[in-house]
């Protein structure tokens, strides 16, 4: 079902440009509130309650106030969690038996972007059908309930502490991290005052970088989208490992003691391998972007593997349809559904660390038997509304490259769900071949 405002990860854009304006966000809160009130009318006495969390962007203050006003006008109470990771909102919404959770974040994007994403009462991202209901409500005039029915707002005490304890609970009680030195890169984002405590309280010596947010520096040269800073810090401090999160802490990239960077595909492989050592694994889910090496490796291991559309919500949908537990994306969104309902960078890091502790191996040793295919990705910015699918030169070049690759690689063209970009991805046996082929196709995007 096509949506006007919702993309693969909620409503997102540049602050001050529609739809990320205070007036629209207030109307969005009102529309979402009306949908909630209507859907819960038979089951909830009193007002529905939603939890609002945010990352460290300066625009979060403005958008939080706008959302709060919209929900109150619809007769919905609000609990304010302050700066917490996206997966913390999912957990707290479920743990506190609330009606819904809302996150103000643009994840890995720069500070001048922001977005709104919703979680259901069960801690899952909203189904497409509910997003469509909210969009339909947005087309109606904004009203206001009578004064005695207005919603109220209050702060949630110790939201960070509650989430820290939850994260720790996903790590085996028989294990600890004593003797390990870990560098944690918080991307100047939502986990800056959470992630260091989790790993320190489990026994690690923690060195933290990217933990001085000022509203403008989120994801800027730090975090999962810029892991080179973590690699340098690990080597400089002679640490055992490094953990990089993104601005809202739902992504994970790791670094070993040599400074080598491990992406989400390699970490998913490690987690599946660890689970297989203690029992059966029903299957794993990747995306259209997942490296071919995983597909080949899982086949050899006798583990079914499926590809979902790009976006952790679609990985989650396939996992739920199949009744499987493990999935993820190369970007670092990793799902362990027996630990959490959504992708969580901190929880995923703890699953990797428990695997290393159980095996007595390093990251390099546990992933030595998988070699990722060289993968070239080029992002091409396109004008709004550009019909790239009708570009004959682009489609023709794609077909030529696919014939040249045969069974030894892949080509994927897809639009970004959050930015006006076409992503051109090529996998090939040699990196230089992949890059050259990707560039050939990218050159045709705007022809």
From TrEMBL:
Co-factor binding comment: Binds 1 Mg(2+) ion per subunit.
Protein name: Phosphoglucosamine mutase
EC number of the protein: 5.4.2.10
Top EC group: isomerase
Gene from which this protein is expressed: glmM
Keyword tags: Isomerase, Magnesium, Metal-binding, Phosphoprotein
MF terms in GO: phosphoglucosamine mutase activity
Residue numbers carrying Phosphoserine: 107
